[in-house]
Design goal:
In chain A, about 50% of the residues lie in helices and about 5% in strands. Chain A is built from 24 helices and twelve strands. At the A-B interface, helix 6, helix 7, helix 15, helix 16 and strand 10 of A face helix 6, helix 7, helix 15, helix 16 and strand 10 of B.
């Protein structure tokens, strides 16, 4: 920064930021809108069984990587952690689909992932790898995948994610070793532990414990307020973003300008502090990143706020966690930084750039914790750096509502095992306090995006209803040997993915439920055109035509569509035997079963369809089919508006 | 130890050991046989739904605590970790039953745990607390409960165990603070981190990685061999133990004598080493526990083997992990110690004392690792203490087959985050190698004890069978309004816990499945004696007589038994309406459903009964009932001996 040319400097700073921001915004708005935001909610929804449009597509992957680089470089208050999780999941998805046919990247052995469960496992591993590499926390990655991302957990999956993150850790370590001399820019910094605060012996007394509880309670309140504000801002932004890419980019520009103003303007309010004399490091720092920034101050002085704002996020966090100089930052500087980061974090999430939530929350939390530590300085004996760490923990607990995984991630970030009991306490308090106000930020975003996420537990009001109460729509069923025209008509007219098959005389004595047939399997069957003129069973004959993998799950957007079928008038009048592709023992519930109980069955077994069968004999053998949408609160409460949702 | 009186010293040593061993053996053999062994397999089986006899009773709790103290004090190669897990589970069970009525410890609010799920959750928390306190590893405790103990996992449970271990960590820390001055004996030692090996900067190269892989492979082989030998020894011991308490105690005496001989005799084979000159600690150590033991050596010399054998287990492990003196132990001393501990560990587990497996495995693994480190000294540059740690990890991985939880427990034991990638690698390799030979040690013990443990996955051969293939025994069902005599007869003649209820005309148009009624509920109903002369519905009338808690799950051994009922001849001819206590929507499967699919339903939802219904209409509305035992490999393969169990 050249002397006195402050306006030019600002113009250069804001201009460069804006150019980078526009790059990120253009990529996101024009090429892959799904790459905007954190990506963790989408991955979470995917692992719950919601395959939203192009959320894990190759284009999303590319935009996520480069958009995230541009976004972080543009100085936005955004993190790279969420995008890294999304990136990991995208790569895993690409592998799981057998590569991308469009980009000529295919492997044959990958066809073993052509089923829902293995593909979901692979994507869970990808998400775990993302966290592992973002925080250099391999065990934290496993626990994040377990606690936040995955909806179904098996011991085999635990062991697979553990393997994945072990490989990540080994690769990461070799790269760090390789980059030790500084030839990879900022990457080599920090080693495997990013923010080492390993303190000699943190002893704490009752006063400290009270202070820590205060941190937890306030952190919980501020965290839930953060969630509330993010939700409101997202709803506002979604109105703007819906108007088109131009508006999206405009929003990015406005936020970028605001961020630049804050980062460049606010340090002017901070007083200059003389450099402490007993320092190991350089003061003031010359160069891009460091501890004591000179900014507008005279020689031998530094500006605390500039050291926080005009720095990489990692260095800012390192400064806030540091315990070497207790009075490094003025109380006013900490307060301004906290307010600015809190505000910028809220308004930045939701614009059309890949934006993680971890870093803004850690920055705000650490400055809040250090601020509180300074304010309570006379009362509590704990170090302000540790207060910063506990503040970050309380904010993370208050917004994301994780416990074990955050605890381990923070442990692996800071290498301070002796702080573990305090960290656990803070996380528990802040999560409990925040849970009494609203839901976790990722759950909120999933809900706001309208993704039909199945909760792990049944809602209380579901106990008042039975399964048949919520079966929606007219039931379309097929006979065991059905006319091709009828099938085609049903496929064209509805968007159902599963149809019950009912055996009627002459194939059975009385109408009985034969099973359930899937739309995707019907399409494969019709495409093969093995029809018969008469209504006869043809079981064994045409099974030889197909290979098991023909019925495997296709990559996203690659399956057969009903428009792809080419069936002529004559064929429409022919018959096809559905028995070979029918699942003859679908999971069923009786119509009088409590909806809550049916929801548990549906969720625990990870089903997509449940057949509802009649209680009394002598009626048609199936009453209806329950799908994911039938369990959604919007659907149920829409049908029964008189039910009180909270009891 | 007085000079030259070596025989008297041995007599005193062995005699005291034997007295303590007999105390532990008598407690176990006479008062609570269920307290013998580790207890982790039993807790694991309980959490899977197997309530073995008196496994969590108050008497077991008391014997476990005192027996474990005596057993460890008697110098056996046993740990206190497994018993602590069992102790935690017992305490949780005592709380969950509303205290013990027998010992006049009851609380009314605890009746909210009168259902399976909440009680199971409580016991999971107890097990987590046990690990947390045994290793001073709160996060490790949560992960142990998740990975090894619990069969069903919900996010609410994660958060509850985390809360439990956070409380444990806080209490533990206050007690350590309180005991800092040494007034609590050995408890205060080590602080929150028991074996602090926090090394400055462990750098490793390719040669080290190869050495570490070798550790992993050999550790896996030795670990699975350990499991194999433990299994063989257990089977032999169970024949001896079945003969009566006297034989049990005799076995304890023999093993105690053998242990004393090893601990006192083997150090004579070790040469005396002159004390290194540049030491901070005393050498040779005078007193009960310490680093350099004098034993028979001259002044200024120490005996390496004595320093390992005649020491507390904790200090021996600390010595093996220490990196201060690379050549502290001779290669021969390490080899003798390894062989002795491996052998003693195998023969000690299974005798009638509470005996954990963690400490023997860690001791054997650490000496093996340090030995390998010495042998590879010229090849690898890593410290021998770290080799010891990795050896312990490889043995733990090879016997117990956990990954994430062991990793975190070892991390919390040693506070060495930079070793994490290596630890993960070793654990993965040893687990993979060992898994190709046999199952984990706890699974083996569960199987050997004949507990009907439901695996998380269905066995491959189950795909060849359908649900109705394995339904066993004649089906006993009741009418909606049934004669008291019939019910009593069925309860007396069978040990079934669930009976289907079938509504017949005049209560339904055709026979239909009304639902499932539980033995325990039937007993409560019969005990209330609200019978009617005629076959009529009485639904609403007598529901008022009961409180919801009357039907709650009673404490173990406290429920009503069929012998407690006092029903006279006249009442036998009367009727009772079963509708109010019938579960009208039990989970059902169709008779043609693959057994594997039914097993998944059964296991995932944690059921005790599944009703098998006919595929075709017009037949009796229920074909049979599947219970846990019908899914056991012994049952299925007994019915179909021709099926190959591995395909």
């Amino acid at each position: 920064m050249l002397a006195d040319k402050y306006y030019q400097a600002f113009a250069a700073f804001a201009g460069l930021n804006m150019i980078l921001a526009i790059c990120a915004g253009v990529l996101c708005a024009l090429i892959a809108p799904a790459a905007a935001g954190s990506g963790i909610p989408e991955v979470k929804a995917y692992l719950n069984g919601v395959d939203a449009h192009s959320i894990l597509a190759p284009s999303t992957l590319l935009v996520k990587i480069f958009g995230s680089v541009f976004g972080v470089a543009a100085g936005f208050v955004v993190g790279k952690e969420g995008p890294m999780v999304h990136t990991g999941a995208c790569i895993a998805n690409l592998l799981g689909q057998g590569g991308s046919r469009k980009y000529h990247l295919t492997w044959k052995w990958l066809r073993f992932f052509k089923n829902d469960r293995d593909r979901r496992d692979l994507i869970t591993c990808g998400a775990a790898a993302g966290v592992a590499v973002a925080f250099r926390a391999p065990v934290g990655g496993v626990l994040f995948a377990l606690e936040e991302a995955a909806s179904w957990w098996r011991s085999a999956l635990l062991w697979r994610t553990f393997f994945t993150t072990a490989v990540v850790a080994m690769v990461l370590r070799s790269l760090i070793q390789f980059c030790k001399s500084g030839k990879c820019g900022l990457f080599g910094q920090g080693g495997l532990i990013m923010f080492n605060v390993n303190s000699a012996n943190p002893s704490y007394n009752t006063a400290d414990l009270l202070a820590i509880m205060l941190i937890g309670v306030l952190g919980g309140i501020l965290g839930s307020l953060y969630n509330y504000l993010v939700d409101k801002v997202l709803r506002t932004y979604s109105i703007i973003n819906e108007r088109g890419p131009a508006f999206k980019i405009l929003l990015v520009i406005v936020v970028s300008l605001l961020t630049s103003c804050c980062a460049y303007g606010l340090p002017w309010f901070a007083a200059c502090t003389p450099c402490p004399t007993d320092l190991d490091v350089q003061c003031p720092t010359i160069g891009r990143s460091g501890n004591y920034k000179n900014f507008q101050c005279a020689e031998g002085h530094y500006n605390g706020l500039a050291s926080l704002f005009l720095n990489t996020n990692d260095d800012a966090i390192r400064n806030l966690f540091s315990s070497t100089n207790k009075n490094e930052f003025h109380i006013s500087a900490l307060f301004i930084f906290f307010a600015a980061v809190y505000f910028l974090g809220v308004i930045t999430y939701g614009i059309a750039i890949p934006s993680g939530l971890f870093i803004p929350v850690i920055l705000a939390g650490a400055s809040y914790g250090r601020l509180l530590g300074r304010l309570l300085g006379s009362f509590a004996s704990l170090d302000v750096g540790l207060f910063g760490l506990l503040g970050a923990a309380s904010f993370l607990g208050g917004t994301m509502r994780m416990t074990v995984s955050l605890c381990v991630i923070l442990l692996e970030l800071t290498n301070d095992l002796l702080m573990l009991p305090l960290m656990m306490l803070v996380l528990l308090i802040s999560k409990t306090v925040a849970d009494s106000f609203n839901k976790g930020v990722y759950d909120q975003i999933v809900k706001m995006k309208g993704l039909p996420y199945m909760e792990a537990h049944a809602e209380p009001y579901m106990r008042q209803l039975v399964a048949s109460d919520v079966c929606s729509g007219p039931l379309i069923s097929f006979s065991g040997v059905e006319k091709v025209g009828n099938i085609l008509h049903a496929l064209r007219m509805t968007r159902h993915n599963g149809f019950p098959v009912i055996d009627e005389p002459p194939f059975a004595d009385a109408p009985e439920l034969c099973g359930l047939v899937l739309r995707s399997h019907l399409l494969v069957l019709l495409n093969a055109k093995k029809f018969t003129k008469n209504r006869v069973l043809t079981r064994t004959e045409y099974l030889r035509m197909f290979h098991a993998f023909d019925f495997g799950k296709a990559g996203s957007g690659k399956g057969l569509k009903v428009e792809d079928l080419d069936i002529n008038e004559e064929e429409m009048e022919m018959y096809v035997d559905l028995h070979p592709i029918t699942n003859t023992s679908p999971y069923t519930v009786v119509e009088t079963m409590s909806l809550a109980k049916a929801a548990v069955l549906f969720r625990e077994l990870g089903l997509r369809h449940v057949c509802v069968v009649p209680k009394t004999p002598g009626r048609p053998p199936i009453v209806g089919i329950l799908t994911r949408h039938d369990f959604m609160p919007e659907h149920v409460l829409g049908l029964y508006p008189d039910i009180h949702p909270h009891k």
